[in-house]
Amino acid sequence: MNIMLPFTRSSNSSGLVELLKAAGIDVVRGFMRYELWTSLAQDDLRQRYRRTVFGLAWLTLSYLVFILAKIFIFGALNPAPMAWFAAYVTVGFLIWQIISSFVVDGSTSLINSETWVKGVQLPYSTYFFESISRDLIIFAYSAVVAGVVLVVTGHVPGWAALSVAPALLLLVLNGLFLHMLLGVICLRYRDVVQVVQTAMRVLFFLTPLVWTVDQVGPIAGFLVWNPFTYLIDIVRAPLVDNIIPLTSWVVSAGITVGLGIVSFFTFAIFRNRMAFWY
Question: Is residue 2 classed as helix, strand or coil in its secondary structure?
């Protein structure tokens, strides 16, 4: 006589499919509320610079001062031509800034949205998109400086620059995945936020931003294990060297696929429990 077990492999698979479907609906519904999360992101930035003389222009001015200091200090230590090094550092820091923001802000995106989660019924992904939108606005203001530096240093965009747009889209997609993964993990385990922030400070020195590969000798072999190296390269190489780094594109695509799978499954499995973690 066959006895039907209450939980079978097919029922477990069906339950996982339902969780994945619900997570997908959450992301779609959250994205469709673009008017809400773009407004929240803009309002947050306005509040930061409320009653200042330059307002959001401080985003551009602060990045300009920061990048000029890096160029003159580290340019004196680098044997590369100053014009090339200036473009190298400026674009590299611009991409590092957006990636670092995705990581750090992604880890606190759900924690900082506690009031909204408890008071308003919205898709969780709404808070991811708000955080990403805010980071992209800051990125846009900083990109003005990068554009000026490229022009001043004689780096006229060539055919390879056509790959920059899809590269930026790939970075944004990774940003969404980072918010999904780190947002959930850090909501449950708050100490991970500090771990993430500390790790990013260390990785800053291990990423080719103010130094070039030929300066570090044998240590350059460790760069192959740094995913940020490839993600920065797919944007910087076309703008600075007018080449499309195929190896970096392959690795970046692999990172995106792997991160996407892990992040989406994590978000789908724990989405129904997150309300109890506040």
Answer: coil
Render the burial of 252-278: b for 16+ CB within 10 Å, e for the rest: beebbeebbeebbbbbbebbeebeebe
Task: Tell me the per-residue pLDDT of 194-241, one tens digit each, with 9 for 90 and over.
Answer: 999 999 999 998 899 988 877 777 777 777 789 999 999 999 999 999
Residue 257 CA to residue 263 CA, distance in Å, equals 10
Residue 130: both structure tokens together: 């708000």
In the chain, what's the furthest Cα-to-Cα distance? 83
Q: Report d(CA 97, CA 200) in Å as an integer.
A: 11
- Tokens for 213, please give them: 């590969």
pLDDT beneath 70: ranges in the chain? 1-11
**Cβ-count burial 70-79 (b if 16+ within 10 Å, e if not):** bbeeebeebe
172 CB neighbour count, 10 Å cutoff: 15
| Nearby residues of 204 by Cβ (< 8 Å), 6 or more positions away | 96, 100
The DSSP-derived string for 53-116 is SSTTHHHHHHHHHHHHHHHHHHHTT--S-HHHHHHHHHHHHHHHHHHHHHHHHHHHTTTTTHHH
**Residue 160 · residue 242 · CB < 8 Å:** yes
Q: Where are the alpha helices (DSSP H) in the chain?
A: 9-32, 34-48, 57-75, 82-108, 114-119, 125-152, 164-188, 191-206, 213-216, 227-240, 246-270
Residue 52 DSSP one-character state: -
Cα-Cα end-to-end distance for the chain? 48
CA-nearest of 137, 100, 94 to 236 is 94
3-state secondary structure of 212: coil
